[in-house]
Design a protein that fits this description.
The protein has 14 helices and 14 strands. With 424 residues, the protein is α+β, with helices and mostly antiparallel strands.
């Protein structure tokens, strides 16, 4: 959530930065300012009347003590009280409208974010490794997985419909090995604390990290009262672990790692990447979350990207790091890097990690603060990144390490998790 005081002080800055997103949200700044003016006017009038009522109460007490008539003053104060009640009721309504509006406005982007309209304008920061040179035509993962008995996509469709996966045999074992490898790497070598959060969360928990109004159609909802939502990523429950808290400065930085299944309806994505397991409704992911001071957040973003890159480097995969432009960046991110791995069988770059700095955007929504050395309560900065998402990592491994005889070689770091198995 943006700071309404800063918007009031420099509205043109916010209009210009939001216009870079090409979403039309800059038009909402005018509405924010109208509501803010109404809110301040009502608040000023209400406080003035309350001050008048306090003075009158003292006068009434003095008149009473002298045995005087207080009927006229009491009648006047009754009218003032009714006016205060009306103003406060209107103020509550205005504040709710303003809050709802601010919750729908995306974050502004950091100065270093490239300006652009779509993914075509994203900036490639670096490319690591080279694509494998095959002596044969590489197969896509769905052919490899089916031939080796690792995947059963027909069964998944029969059970749940399109966009789901059944991992079988060594495929299921490889998926589990990847989860354990990622958690062990990040907790033992990168200093994260592992957590296992709920998979169902309340609407206000979703609202703490993103806009429920904008993205509800992409989420699976359980019809409770109030409703519960299946998490689209562990970012949602993990970042909310400290909502409504004021942390001691010495508790920061905080680093959490969490494995969870993730659930996404992917509304509006019909027809995209329908073959194989590139785009699915349920998938496994290890998520990395940081809660830090504002001074540390951009250095932490680079560290976070490095932690996600470490996975691909250790597994010997060809990948690139991309800085998302203003027209492609996510709703809450101030700056975001995508890490894309090369999948030779499908001949495409696949996003396996998205690492974002949200600055204080999420912390304001969650009212997450820390007490600095001067005793002031300051909003924390939050960051998160996939460390990594499993289906596309699974794809890259099968397609990169496929052999001419149909087998798939297992990279060295995973073999201990597979009982020493060197190939599938």
């Amino acid at each position: 959530m943006l700071d309404v005081r800063k918007i009031r002080e420099n509205p043109d800055f916010y209009r210009e930065r939001l216009a870079r997103r090409n979403t039309g949200d800059e038009k909402l700044i005018a509405q924010v300012l109208v509501l803010d003016e109404q809110r301040r006017k009502h608040l000023q009038e209400s406080e003035a009347l309350k001050s008048e009522r306090n003075r009158a109460s003292k006068e009434i007490g003095a008149v009473k003590a002298k045995g005087g008539d207080i009927a006229e003053v009491s009648a006047k104060m009754k009218a003032v009280g009714e006016q205060i009640a009306k103003l406060d009721q209107e103020l509550t309504k205005i504040e709710a409208e303003q809050s709802d509006l601010l919750l729908r406005i995306p974050n502004i982007n950091h100065d270093s974010v490239p300006v652009g309209k779509s993914a075509e304008d994203n900036r490639i920061e670096r490319v690591i490794g080279k694509p494998v040179e095959f002596t044969f035509k590489p197969k896509p993962h769905w052919e490899i997985g089916t031939q080796l008995g690792l995947l059963d996509l027909e069964a998944a469709t029969k059970i749940s419909g399109s966009g789901f996966i059944v991992f079988k045999g060594q495929g299921a074992r490889l998926e589990r090995a990847l989860i354990n490898y990622l958690l062990d790497l990040h907790t033992t070598q990168h200093g994260y604390t592992e957590v296992s959060p709920p998979l169902l969360v309340r609407g206000e928990t979703i609202q703490g990290t993103t806009s429920l109004a904008k993205f509800a159609e992409d989420m699976y909802r359980v019809e409770e009262e109030p409703p519960l939502y299946l998490i689209p990523t562990a970012e949602v429950p993990v970042t909310n672990l400290h909502r409504e808290e004021i942390l001691a400065a010495d508790r920061l930085p905080i680093q959490y790692a969490a494995y969870t299944p993730c659930f996404r309806r992917e509304a509006g994505s019909a027809g995209k990447d329908t073959r194989g397991i590139t785009r699915v409704h349920q998938f496994d992911k290890v998520e990395l979350v940081h809660i830090v001071t504002p001074e540390e957040s951009y250095a932490t973003l680079e560290v976070l990207v490095g932690h996600a890159e470490r996975v691909l480097k250790d597994l010997g995969l060809h990948y690139r790091v991309v800085s998302l432009c203003t027209g492609d960046i996510g709703f809450g991110a101030a700056k975001c890097y995508d890490i894309e791995v090369w999948a030779p069988g499908v001949g495409a770059w696949l996003e396996v990690s998205s690492c974002s700095n949200f600055e204080d955007f999420q912390a304001r929504r969650m009212n997450l603060r820390y007490k600095n050395s001067e005793g002031k309560n300051i909003f924390c900065h939050t960051l998160n990144g996939s460390g990594t998402a499993l289906p596309r990592l699974f794809i890259a491994l099968l397609e990169t390490y496929q052999q001419a005889d149909g087998h798939v070689v297992i990279p060295e770091p995973l073999r201990s998790y597979l009982g020493g198995l060197s190939q599938l």
